[in-house]
Amino acid sequence: MDRSDVADYKSLMRITRIRVVCGLSLLLLSCGRSVADHRDRGLMPMPAKIEFAAASLQVDGHLPIMIVGHSDARLQRAIDQFLQHLTAYTGQEFPHGVADTPDQAKLVIRCAGPGQLVQTPDEDESYSLRVTAEQIQLNAATVVGVLRGLATLEQLVQPGGNGFVIPEVSIEDKPRFVWRGLLIDVCRHWQPMAVIQRNLDAMAAVKLNVLHLHLTEDQGFRVESRRFPRLHEHGSDGKYFTQEQLRKIVAYARDRGIRVVPEFDMPGHTTSWLVGHPELAAAPGPYRIERRWGVFDPCFDPTREALYEFLDAFFSEMTAIFPDPYMHIGGDEVNGKQWEANPQIQAFLKRESLPDLHALQAYFNRRVAAILNKHGKTMVGWDEILHEGLPQGCVVQSWRGSESLAQAIERGFDGILSSGFYLDHQRPASFHYLNELQPTGGSPSDTRPARILGGEACMWGEYVTPETIDSRIWPRLAAIAERLWSPASIKDVDDMYRRLEQVGHALDAIGARHRTNRGRMLHRLAGRHPIGALQVLAAVVEPVKFYKRSAARPYTNHTPLNRLVDAARPESQVARRFQLEVRGFLSGRSADASRAIRRRLKSWRDNHQALMSAIRDAPLLEEVAPVSRNLQLIATLGLQAMDTIESDQQPGADWKAGVLAAIENAAGPHAEVDIAVIATVKTLVESVGSAKP
Amino acid sequence: MDRSDVADYKSLMRITRIRVVCGLSLLLLSCGRSVADHRDRGLMPMPAKIEFAAASLQVDGHLPIMIVGHSDARLQRAIDQFLQHLTAYTGQEFPHGVADTPDQAKLVIRCAGPGQLVQTPDEDESYSLRVTAEQIQLNAATVVGVLRGLATLEQLVQPGGNGFVIPEVSIEDKPRFVWRGLLIDVCRHWQPMAVIQRNLDAMAAVKLNVLHLHLTEDQGFRVESRRFPRLHEHGSDGKYFTQEQLRKIVAYARDRGIRVVPEFDMPGHTTSWLVGHPELAAAPGPYRIERRWGVFDPCFDPTREALYEFLDAFFSEMTAIFPDPYMHIGGDEVNGKQWEANPQIQAFLKRESLPDLHALQAYFNRRVAAILNKHGKTMVGWDEILHEGLPQGCVVQSWRGSESLAQAIERGFDGILSSGFYLDHQRPASFHYLNELQPTGGSPSDTRPARILGGEACMWGEYVTPETIDSRIWPRLAAIAERLWSPASIKDVDDMYRRLEQVGHALDAIGARHRTNRGRMLHRLAGRHPIGALQVLAAVVEPVKFYKRSAARPYTNHTPLNRLVDAARPESQVARRFQLEVRGFLSGRSADASRAIRRRLKSWRDNHQALMSAIRDAPLLEEVAPVSRNLQLIATLGLQAMDTIESDQQPGADWKAGVLAAIENAAGPHAEVDIAVIATVKTLVESVGSAKP
After folding, report:
1. Which residues of B590-623 are buried (b: 16+ CB within 10 A; e: fewer)?
2. Is B448 helix (H, G, I), strand (E, B) or coil?
3. In this predicted complex, what is the ipTM?
4. Dihedral-angle region of residue B69 (phi above 0 means left; psi in -120 to 50 means alpha; beta otherwise)
5. Are residues A489 and A452 in the same domain?
6. What digits encode the pLDDT tens for the residues B259-318?
7. Would you say residue A334 lies in a domain?
8. Which of A284, A583, A591, B66 has the maximum number of C-beta atoms within 10 A of its C-beta?
9. Which domain holds residue A646?
10. Active site annotation includes A501
11. How many folded domains does chain B comprise?
């Protein structure tokens, strides 16, 4: 598919809407049933080019499939998985039926070839999809293209007809960026196989194509090394992936069109290596696995040749496990303290005419890049590696700001953007969604800017367990996936949230646990009490943002993550809806909007008493009492503001300032959560006395 | 533990309560926190002898364990699983820490020996458990006893202290019955490994010890036979357990102290055998896998010697997979039509002086029992096998009524009760809970009546898929497990429901899907609409009872089970609470009770309109409209009754009859669901005009 085929999305949607409206009336005539006006249901990422028509294909258990052209075991497994997902979405069985001729087939897959033996960013992921009332036709150049088409097809299934339908549609699709990733840090908190596998399933559903595994850290060495078994034996508390498991992850990912890029962070963030191998360090040991979070001193000694021999042997072993052409060496947050304090290292700097410690790290990076190069790998590192003398061909992953991405590109390096995609910052989906990858200057183009490979969302592991990690990744990552796949012009935030709601349910159906685990956690917090009041509170609080949590208490990886802050979603959907309601009310003051706002405010005001009865014997909830009381106060003030607005009173001059100060005072945070409705209540208060709309 | 050790539960509880109350005040003094008055939280089955005291053991991630006496790999795996469950319950990590001396240990396990190499009903499952503020001591004669003790220990974990505690307690426990089972029918709807494994986990949590796998049926032959591969190749649609999977199930069950008893139903219910082996049939083929539900004609020909040679070889193969000393041959529902119509069989009857077809089945059973006996197996069959001449030593499983159990015992056979334990009948937990196994006459004894091995709940497969089966089994099976394990005197229904609520959450936490899948199903039904209104309706409807569903439409195993009836719980807890509220109100008429009842009735009355907006484009909900309308009507009439009662009016003579008739008329069923609050609204109406309490 050529760039010229990709019509402007907005004008397309305009045409589509007209067509859908016409089609609807036809359908209404023909079957007497109304049809949803959003026939895309929960499509995300939105295809590059899509055109709906009026008819629908009935989806029942009978879906004979014919493959034309290339077929292989991976494609067959993909079809099995697709049918299992259909069962999850519809509650009906879908036996794997095979059609012998295209006429008998309900789904015809035309696949031109297998695609790359080892998937790279150059893999052709494009596909076209055409659904009519009789048949689905999916065409792709590669198996990965078929996978992407099946993922779209799944998202099109929706209630209709006698049960479920796929709407008539014509799609031409291909990604804007070739590197669309998720980093999972399995070091700070261990994440076992099941977590990786279910997140790979969910990643494939939104067409992501890179799993970046952060495998070594101060807090844990999470890979079995047979060459240097002291690494995982002494550095992991027994929590590591065996080589067999890693191979299984790589194969599982490949079945989903996902590359696995391993990261071995060095020369800093290496405490766990040094527990079993103190001889690699720039200062004498012994070392112990780090339990706290932060930046620590332990560091490799880059002046010793033995280090490079060790790394050569280690990377040789890892190369046999990870076939991906890229290998990530971290390179971030070297504080240089051990280097400064070590006279031999200082002597080395002089001898080699290295002006400073940055130059020493650059020297280390050049040596490591050469080793990786020998093993056929391209080196990737965090943006700290962007020193003078970084060998061409390396890839820079920008995390400290998008400026470093611009710099890397200017200097001829390929770049990946992670700044603005940090899931652990607990920011709203809309923030990540609008994090455009195009360097500043010039309006975003739907074609990929040169040298920007794509982006990666980062799920750092300080505050996530296997129980909570899904809720920090999903559904927000789906919005990032759309930024990375879809044309830049697709950026309507309200429409994104409408679809994200549906995508969240779909991901739940195929095994992601962002919804189910939350319910369990609230039940645990409530003990033997009903969870109603706790749910009301939990729905309007969010974990504190950025790195505020680390300041709240001395966390280690032994600290239980089982409190309200862990059950709270990064983004309160109730707060978002409340904001929309208030915005609508302030611009029009309908009685309906007023009732809805007052109902919410009253439920928050009256919730405190109900919750307090549960808190009496639920110790994990004790810290929540001030939050609940503050919500009560804020809601009471919000109701006052509503009364004042609706009676068109002009309160005394001090009223507004006093109320705003009271709200500010109630903002906390307590218990490491923010009350997410505060900003909107402030808006209400601030609007008091403004001109009537 | 001797019978004399088991004190009367009620007097025990009386003492315990006093102790707890005293203990509470001490604890209140010492830590200023109130403590739940039900320190048993969600214990089920209730131990034979239990005594709480005042203190608590703090449960944090540090739980060093010491094993004294016997240890083996099974015990180690049990400890790993126990620690994983603790993580699920508390949200904290529990590394497997080992203590070298009892002083350092927080959990001391004293295990006298491994127990039986192949578990039988004679296995010693008793244990004693003592928890103090410092240490847990668990003593058992066997590994299975330890498993039972760990299951109790898990259930004792509860919010308290700084997080979670186990209350100080002393327990002596052993089961009343030695055969406590669940039958899962994997034939009518296929149930894959994951379903079996998660249900084994849940069974172990409530101390059940037999998984009865119903492996062959008219609708499917679900076992790989290498000796006769046409059986599974032609009889299963590819849905069967491989021998490797079956061995895995047996091992997985053994790790949980659960025996696996396979059932190969014969001579009727054998259509799926005959697809690949028509020569076994009493009428000429060809045969096709049955898709409907019911009793069908196809049947083995018991007059042919080749049949017994075939079965001998087949059972020989199965014996190598299933080590259990019992093997189940079904034997139910032979309609005899093929036998009647076959002249050779009629001639055989004459030649062998067999008076009728029952005698022919008895002949068949004797032959099969001899074959099983040769392979070291005891034959079990449904109560139809209780003909004259049934060899002594066979076991009779009573399903048609408890009279057959009494008959079997009278005639010297061991018996298992399933009548009254059919989960597919969708009856309330209380019904199953009060289904006493003691034959009528004489008050139930806490010791096991002679020859009654125990009971089995039956999960027949006509109306369950992998998605819905958990909701039909759990949590009701936990109440049955208590009937089978605990002393007969433990039968307080309200107390059972209080604990069942907690057990339901605990089972959810360890992987049972009765809660999570229901939420997904409601979202699917609602499509892109919020599910609030649907939840209100779903919470007060129940699937129709007994076999009524089969009369509602022509079901086959292709019929999707994705409707409201499938998402509805067998027992509405909202309806139960409403009933308790109305009962309370009618006996006391408090303003609080009135408010609560009116709130519920209004929410049901007002729900219809909200739901109707969703139904417009959710085809699977269309059938639900009359149910919702009827709920609205019934709630409106209930509110009328409340008004009348509270105003102390005496309505006209016809009022009550008219209202009751209107309710009866609205009772339906529609959409194969019952409105579960109808009986209670009727009670309200009937009480109008009664004397004021």
Report:
1. eeebeebbbebbeebbebbebbeebbebbbbbeb
2. coil
3. 0.89
4. left
5. yes
6. 999 999 999 999 999 999 999 999 999 999 999 999 999 999 999 999 999 999 999 999
7. yes
8. B66
9. 516-686
10. no
11. 3
